[in-house]
Amino acid sequence: MVVARPLYLVTLSLLLLGMLSSAQARRAKPSRSQLEARQTKLDLSKYHVPLSNELGSASLPSPGSTVTLKAITLGRGTQNYTCAPGSTGAPVSVGAVASLLDVAPLLPLFPSSNSQDILNLLPQYLVSFDFGAIENSTIPNLGHHYFDALKVPTFDLGSIGLLKAARNASIAAPPHSCKGANGKGVGAVDWLFLTEAPGSSKLKEVYRVETAGGKSPVSCQGQPSHIEVQYAAQYWFFG
């Protein structure tokens, strides 16, 4: 169950997402270099990555003392799993694929007193947006998340940096988290803190928080060999 939020926050979140996704016919997408410059110029100092679930029972480590916030993105894609033929065990995670959407156009539109609250609401609505429609809309795409041939989580943000990541810590998503598209699904994937692995450039840490959807079915029974589960999340990059 999703915790009730002030109505104006919900309305504004939906309005902003709808405005960006329906603008396709009115203007062209900015280039990748323009998006990267926008993130570089944006003052991110008043935004703070969520580290604890709302019950206060678990928390991710704080960012390192020598790093600074480089980008905030909204990830939208699929968590991917496999099932062996005839298996009744749990599906096996084989990674994820996601577009990393630029939040820079949204932040100046938020009321300053509630900007963090609104930002934290967005994944639970974004997970219900059709992925193909998002890819073809004017919501700016800052980069991509995928697993490379060695199954290393990879985040490519162009000139902002490349992060080959290793899991450092994880906590369960808060109980109220959105279970999936249209509020239906098994649940929200864990919140993660990942740090740089060999092959990284400019980026050193990333947090996956405010997750919506992405959890696999409990059992492989009756499932196909390959399962894609829709999800959305915030990704906070430090370097």
The gist of it:
With 239 residues, this protein is an alpha+beta fold.
What does this 3D model show about the protein?
This protein has 239 residues and is α+β, with helices and mostly antiparallel strands. It has helices at 7-21, 32-41, 115-126, 131-135; strands at residues 69-82, 92-102, 141-147, 153-156, 162-171, 191-196, 205-213, 226-238. The chain has an 8-stranded antiparallel beta barrel. A hairpin with an 8-residue loop joins strand 6 and strand 7 (205-213). The model is unreliable at 23-27 (pLDDT under 50).
Give me the number of helical elements. 4
- How many strand elements? 8
Judging from the principal axes of the Cα atoms, what is the shape? globular
Termini separation (Å)? 35 Å
User: Could you give a short account of the major beta sheet?
Assistant: 8 strands, antiparallel, barrel
Helix % is 10-25%
